[in-house]
Automatic annotation (TrEMBL):
This is N-acetyl-gamma-glutamyl-phosphate reductase. Catalyzes the NADPH-dependent reduction of N-acetyl-5-glutamyl phosphate to yield N-acetyl-L-glutamate 5-semialdehyde. The gene is argC. The lineage of its organism: Bacteria, Pseudomonadati, Pseudomonadota, Alphaproteobacteria, Hyphomicrobiales. It is an enzyme of class 1 (oxidoreductase). Keywords: Amino-acid biosynthesis, Arginine biosynthesis, Cytoplasm, NADP, Oxidoreductase.
Length: 352
C-alpha cells in the first residue's frame, strides 16, 4: 500500500479550507490528520459543513498550542486570514522544520519587505520566511515549487491575469505599459465570515467595482509583471463583485508590439501551455464562461483582435476556490511531495 502523507489544514472551517477538505478527501495520497478553526474550534467538521457528514474527519481544533513536532505532518495548508498567517507559519516551522507549507494567504507573496509594508500597512513579522518563500503560480514556477519548503499560493485575481500575461511579457509580444485588467469575482472570494458588504441584500441584483486604483493584488501583479518584462510594469486593475458564488472572469486589454498580431498572442500561449493539464487555450476568437471551469482546477483563456488596430482582448476564467486557491495549493503540494501533479484534481467542471 502507498504510504499516505499526513496533511494539516489550518482554517478548515472557512471556504478555501472546506474546499481543501472536499478535494483532499478524494486525494489518493492524503491523510487529513489535523483540521483547525478559530470560533468553530471544538466542533465536528460535519456540524460546520453537513456535506462532510458521510466522511470520517478529525475534529476541528484551535491552532493555538498545537504540538507541531508531535503531529509530524508532512505538509500543512494554511488557509487563515492574511496577517494572521505569518506568525503561525513561523511557529510551525520553528517547531517542525521538515514540514512543508503551502500558504493560501497573501502573507508571503511579496518578496520585497518594503512593498509588503506599503500595501499591508505594517512591517512583515517573519522576514526570513518571506525571503525563503516561493511564489506558487505552478505553471510558471514549477521547478522552484518542487524544491520549496514554503510556497506562497497566488491570489485568485492574480492567477487569472498572470497566466495569460506573463508569457506574453516574457516574449515581448505586448507593450508592458498599456495593460488593463477588468476582473470580476464571485462572492466566495470574500471568505465565509459575516460582513455587511456580503449580505444577500447588499449583493444580489447589483454589481459594483471595489478597491478601485488601490486593491492589494496590484502589488502582486506589479511584482510578477515586472519580473517577466525585465522592467517596471504598472498595470491598471479593477476588481468587481459579482452576485454569483464561484468564479473569476478577467477581461484583459493589451496593446500589441509592432510586429505582433492577436493570433500571434494565441500561438505564444498555446505553445507555452501545450500539454499543461490545467490551462486550456480556446480556439482563436472563442471566449470562456465561468461555468466552464466551476468546481475544476482548469483555467480557460480566449484571445481575439480588437476592432482598433494594434489592440487585442484576452478573456481568462477560473474558479476562485479551486485554481484560484485550494486546487492550485494541492497542485503545488503534489509537486512538493513528489506525487503526480494532477492527483486529487481531476474533477471536470460542474455545468450548468
Ligand atoms: N476565498 C477565496 O476565493 C480566496 C482566499 N484566499 C485566501 O485564503 C485565506 C482563507 O480565505 P477564506 O477561506 O476565504 O477565509 P474564511 O474567512 O472563509 O476562513 C478563514 C478561516 O480562518 C480561521 N480563522 C480566522 N481568524 C483566525 C485566527 N485569528 N486564528 C486562527 N484561525 C483563524 C477561521 O475560523 P472560524 O471560522 O472558526 O472563525 C476560518 O477557518 C485568506 O488569507 C484569503 O485571503 C486566497 C485565494 C482565494
Ligand atoms: C471577492 C473578494 O473580496 N475577493 C478578495 C480576494 C480574494 C483573493 O484572491 O485573495 P487573497 O485575499 O488571498 O489575496 C478581495 O478582493 O480581497
Amino acid at each position: 500500500m502507498v504510504k499516505k502523507a499526513r496533511i494539516g489544514i489550518l482554517g478548515a472551517s472557512g471556504y478555501t479550507g472546506a474546499e481543501l477538505v472536499r478535494l483532499g478527501l478524494r486525494h489518493p495520497q492524503f491523510e487529513l490528520a489535523v483540521l483547525t478553526a478559530d470560533r468553530k474550534a471544538g466542533q465536528a467538521m460535519a456540524d460546520v459543513f453537513p456535506q462532510f457528514a458521510p466522511f470520517s474527519l478529525p475534529k476541528l481544533v484551535s491552532v493555538d498550542g498545537l504540538d507541531w513536532r508531535a503531529q509530524a505532518l508532512d505538509l500543512v495548508f494554511c488557509a487563515l486570514p492574511h496577517a494572521t498567517t505569518q506568525l503561525v507559519v513561523s511557529d510551525l516551522l520553528d517547531a517542525a522544520p521538515a514540514t512543508r507549507v503551502v500558504d493560501l494567504s497573501a502573507d508571503f507573496r511579496l518578496s520585497d519587505p518594503a512593498a509588503y509594508e506599503q500595501w499591508y500597512g505594517h512591517p512583515h513579522q517573519a522576514l526570513a520566511l518571506q525571503s525563503e518563500a516561493v511564489y506558487g503560480l505552478t505553471e510558471i514556477y514549477r521547478k522552484e515549487v518542487k524544491a520549496a519548503r514554503l510556497v506562497a499560493n497566488p491570489g485568485c485575481y492574480t492567477s487569472a491575469a498572470e497566466l495569460p500575461l506573463i508569457p506574453l511579457l516574457k516574449r515581448k509580444a505586448i507593450e508592458p505599459d498599456a495593460i488593463i485588467i477588468d476582473a470580476k469575482s464571485g462572492m466566495t472570494g470574500a471568505g465565509r465570515s459575516a460582513k455587511e458588504a456580503t449580505l444577500f441584500s447588499e449583493v444580489s441584483e447589483g454589481f459594483n467595482a471595489y478597491g478601485v486604483a488601490h486593491h492589494r493584488h496590484m502589488a502582486e501583479l506589479d511584482q510578477e509583471f515586472s519580473k517577466a518584462a525585465g522592467q517596471d510594469v504598472i498595470a491598471t486593475f479593477t476588481p468587481h463583485l459579482l452576485p454569483i458564488n464561484r468564479g473569476i472572469l478577467a477581461t484583459i486589454y493589451v496593446k500589441l508590439r509592432k510586429d505582433k498580431t492577436a493570433r500571434d498572442l494565441r500561438t505564444i500561449l498555446a505553445e507555452q501551455y501545450d500539454g499543461e493539464p490545467f490551462v486550456h487555450m480556446l480556439r482563436y476568437g472563442d471566449m470562456p464562461h465561468t461555468r466552464h471551469v466551476r468546481g475544476s482546477n482548469m483555467v480557460m483563456i480566449g484571445v481575439v483582435a480588437d476592432r482598433r488596430d494594434g489592440q487585442a482582448i484576452i478573456v481568462s476564467v477560473l474558479d476562485n476556490l479551486v485554481k484560484g486557491a485550494s486546487g492550485q495549493a494541492i497542485q503545488n503540494a503534489n509537486l512538493m511531495l513528489g506525487f503526480p501533479e494532477t492527483a486529487g484534481l481531476e474533477q471536470i467542471a460542474l455545468f450548468p
